[in-house]
Every structure is written in structure tokens, then in C-alpha cells.
Design brief:
Number of helices of chain A: 9
Low-confidence stretches of chain B: none
Structural class of chain A: mainly alpha
Order of helices and strands of chain B: HH
Helix content of chain B: over 70%
Helix content of chain A: over 70%
Number of domains of chain A: 1
Low-confidence stretches of chain A: none
Radius of gyration of chain A: 20 Å
Strand content of chain A: under 5%
Largest interface: A-B, 40 and 31 residues
Number of strands of chain A: 0
Largest sheet of chain B: none
Structural class of chain B: mainly alpha
Oligomer: heterodimer
Strand content of chain B: under 5%
Largest sheet of chain A: none
Number of strands of chain B: 0
Mean pLDDT of chain B: 92
Mean pLDDT of chain A: 92
Number of helices of chain B: 2
Order of helices and strands of chain A: HHHHHHHHH
Shape of chain A: globular
Shape of chain B: rod-shaped
Distance between the termini of chain A: 34 Å
Chain lengths: ~250, ~55
């Protein structure tokens, strides 16, 4: 079998609800376990081992939850929009299920980004909130998540709700580069990129490792929660299928 | 140890920041498990109804 053929077989399998249901159930404990280890190390090292910042002192430690959560808020939106596009173009139900499962997780991490950012902004900028390009575009991201979720539940026919939500998700993806480049395009209170930039990160290893660990931990945590929600969303869309009988027995 | 908890005078920002993070992580687990449980119940009910009709 050629590599190409293996890839296509795998792609078709991913479109099959019972396969996705089984994979999600099997992956969940692994993702959750590794996420717990990575977040555990990140919290301890970030709070107790990393040295204080020379400008921000101990306040910089908020970076260990704010930055991973901010990255996750845009990453989840991008995944949701891609899954929605796949679902719309190829009429793959699992795509809608991934998008529906991702939306509440993404919304919660966007809220977390705004709250932790505001707690960091008060001592550093002297204000909890400013109508700054980065802050405003992140707030719009939260409204997009809430809009996608309400739209999905606003229709009597769940399939129409899925399509409407998918369309809004795809259109709303224009906000993702705006969030990312807002600190470059406009004058912003918010600081520029520290890690993801051309050249070496502007941070010593003792500060960087806990941050990378938190980032990995948050990503895997999203994966674990997605696996739980995805099983439910697949079931919601597959009630008449024969495999569901076997699946809910366990 | 009290020096650690005082976070160089930033305790009132750092601890709520980490506290709210813990709340969001726990909410995600709780809400996800609840939605899966609800979906299993609904699917079970739909199967039972289909069985009683046939």
C-alpha cells in the first residue's frame, strides 16, 4: 500500500462516526494524563522556580496561564473553522461534531484570556481594560464563539443549525489574523511577540521551559475535553444508527 | 514561605489569575462529562422508543 493510499484510508475513517467515537474514547485518558503532568510541572516551575522578571517582578508569572490560554483561544477557533469548512464542503457530519464540541471550550479559554489579561493589565498598565486593538479583537473572538453557539441551537432542525453555525465560523475566521497581528499593525498597549517570532525567543530557559510546558499542557487538555464532548456530539447526530446501541452500553 | 505567597506585592493579581484558571479547567471537565452523559441518555431513550414502536 502506498503512503498516499494509507493517508486517504485514514481520511475516510475520520469521516466515520463510530470510528471517531471509539478513537475519542481511547485517546481521552492519555491526553488528560499527559496534560495533567505538563500543567503540574508548569505551575510549580512557573510560580516557584522561574526567576522574577527584571521589569515586571513577580507579576510576570501571570504569563504562565495568560499566554497558553490566549494561544488556545485562537487555535481552537481555527480548528473549529477548518472542521466547519470540511463539514460544509464534503458534507461530513463529524466536522460539525468537532466544531460543536470545540465552541464551548474555545469560549471558556477566550474568557480566561480576557480575565487573566485584565488582572495582569491592572498592575502593569494601570487599568483592567482599554479599547486596545489586541484586547478588542480578543473580545470580538468571544462574541464570535457565543454567536456560533447560539446560532447552532436557534434552529428547530439540528442539521440547519449546524450549517448556519458552520457558515458563521468560517466567515468569522478573518478575526484570527487580526488578533494575531493587532500588536504589529496598530499602536497597542499590549506587548509584542516573545516566543513565536523570527530569531530566538526573548526569554531565558528557566522562564521559557515552564511556559512551553503549560502551552503543551493546555493544548492536550483541549484535546482531552474535545474527546469527551465529541463522543456526545457524534451520538447526538447518529441516534438512528445501529452502532449506537453497542456504544452506549459500555 | 510568606514571601512566596505575597508574590512581591502582586498577590492580589497573581493568585486570582491562577485561581480563575483552575476554575475554567475544572468547569471544562465537568461540563464536558455532563454533556456526554446527557447525549448517552438521549440516545438510549431514542433506541428504547424505536424498539417499542417496532
Amino acid at each position: 500500500m502506498t503512503v498516499e493510499r494509507i493517508m486517504w484510508t485514514w481520511f475516510y475513517k475520520l469521516a466515520s462516526p463510530p470510528y471517531v467515537y471509539g478513537v475519542a474514547a481511547a485517546l481521552m485518558p492519555w491526553l488528560f494524563g499527559i496534560a495533567a503532568l505538563a500543567i503540574g510541572y508548569g505551575v510549580v516551575a512557573g510560580l516557584a522556580i522561574a526567576p522574577p522578571d527584571y521589569q515586571q517582578g513577580e507579576a510576570f508569572r501571570m504569563i504562565y496561564v495568560h499566554v497558553p490560554s490566549a494561544i488556545l483561544s485562537v487555535t481552537i477557533y481555527t480548528i473549529m473553522a477548518c472542521a466547519s469548512a470540511v463539514a460544509l464542503i464534503w458534507r461530513i457530519k463529524v466536522g460539525h461534531a468537532v466544531a460543536a464540541a470545540s465552541a464551548p471550550i474555545g469560549a471558556s479559554f477566550t474568557l480566561l484570556t480576557l480575565v487573566t489579561g485584565s488582572l495582569w493589565g491592572r498592575p502593569m498598565w494601570g487599568t483592567y481594560w482599554a479599547w486596545d486593538p489586541r484586547l478588542t479583537s480578543e473580545l470580538i473572538l468571544l462574541f464570535l464563539y457565543v454567536g456560533v453557539m447560539s446560532l447552532r441551537s436557534a434552529f428547530e432542525d439540528p442539521a440547519r443549525g449546524d450549517r448556519a453555525a458552520a457558515l458563521l465560523s468560517v466567515v468569522g475566521v478573518v478575526n484570527v489574523p487580526i488578533v494575531h497581528f493587532s500588536v504589529v499593525w496598530w499602536n497597542s498597549l499590549h506587548q509584542g511577540a516573545t516566543i513565536v517570532r523570527l530569531g530566538a525567543p526573548k526569554m531565558p530557559g528557566s522562564m521559557l521551559w515552564p511556559l512551553l510546558s503549560m502551552w503543551l499542557g493546555f493544548m492536550l487538555f483541549y484535546g482531552a475535553v474535545l474527546c469527551i464532548r465529541l463522543q456526545g456530539e457524534v451520538l447526538n447526530r447518529e441516534r438512528q444508527s445501529a452502532w449506537v446501541r453497542e456504544a452506549i452500553k459500555s | 514561605m510568606s514571601e512566596f505567597w505575597s508574590m512581591g506585592g502582586y498577590a492580589r493579581y497573581v493568585w486570582p489569575c491562577f485561581g480563575f484558571t483552575a476554575i475554567v479547567l475544572l468547569w471544562n471537565l465537568w461540563a464536558a462529562r455532563r454533556s456526554l452523559r446527557a447525549a448517552r441518555l438521549r440516545a438510549g431513550r431514542a433506541l428504547a422508543m424505536a424498539a417499542s414502536e417496532s
